[in-house]
């Protein structure tokens, strides 16, 4: 048995959620829904659909979320940002999501319209940040509201204290769960979680796991997001560029080791960034020891299909 696999007793009540992004064309749409179908075997507690930077994929997000719910995934959470829209426009989008069956939002400020690294300016008449958006959604009803969290701090935050203050404001306004930016060093997450708890924040803080499909891309993106790819991970992957099979296996082990180590530190919930592709994510889940279920036995799908 591979050493990364959790023993049944250790698996306890571990739970998964998967993040997807809206497709840009028919081919990507086919791939998305195939991935959703493949990963449904792991019976995720919920799945989430991102919202394009600058609101650029508003229509695509809405369409994809509606289809997910219609296709039997009622636990689909809609991401939403404050970028590039006045409050009434954002409120109207919230209404459209609610009409489409959404009961779980991931409320975000979003990146500056000039791109990551540019100065963020709230849109005139818009929600100024994620905390304000959380309050607006909470005022609409008893929804689940997830928000972001940054174990290595957000690049715009002067320090971790400021960062955790922002998380606290979101929780005070009604957030029920935090999903973290991806990270690769579990000590960073554990230290962050201790500080979050010391600040009196008690909501679940769910680690974001990014299996590394492409080291160069992930390293570039991590740099922009203020996340670190540890040297030890770079060393394990960098010489495998020409060996796709070996690279896939090593990437599977890296992510599985991270999840197993977190589980042994007491973490129960895991949010996996899928990049809309199932093979690597499924391999990671299998290696960790998450159970696969047949579609008939998956409660969320069965409930959706009956609706
Ligand atoms: P906030 O929680 O409001 O702020 C994040 C941190 O930045 C805070 O901790 C705060 O300390 C600091 N900060 C904020 N504003 C300022 C300021 N004016 N001055 C100094 N510090 C400040 N982006 C998308 O476009 N679409 C998505 O669907 C999407 N989904 C995401 C999902 C997750 C789980 C995560 C972690 C990120 C996601 N993002 C998404 C990226 C996110 O929009 C960016 O990281 C954005 O820069 C911050 O949004 P936020 O909601 O985290 O902001």
Mean pLDDT: 92
Number of helices: 12
Q: What overall geometry do the principal axes of the alpha carbons give?
A: globular
Helix and strand content put the structural class at alpha/beta
CATH architecture identity: Alpha-Beta Barrel
What molecules are bound to this protein? flavin-adenine dinucleotide
Order of helices and strands: HEHEHEHEHEHEHEHHHEHH
Please report the distance between the alpha carbons of the first and last residues.
Answer: 41 Å
Summed up:
With 307 residues, this protein is an alpha/beta fold. It has twelve helices and eight strands.
Describe this structure in words.
- The protein is an alpha/beta fold and 307 residues long.
- The chain has one domain: TIM Barrel, CATH 3.20.20.220.
- The protein is built from 12 helices and 8 strands.
- It has helices spanning 8-11, 26-39, 58-70, 87-99, 130-138, 160-172, 186-198, 215-225, 231-238, 244-264, 279-288, 299-306, and strands at 15-20, 46-49, 76-80, 104-107, 144-149, 177-182, 205-209, 269-273.
- It has an 8-stranded parallel beta barrel with strand order 1-2-3-4-5-6-7-8, surrounded by 6 helices.
- The radius of gyration is 19 Å and the shape is globular.
- It binds flavin-adenine dinucleotide.
- The site of flavin-adenine dinucleotide has 23 residues, from helix 6 and strand 6.
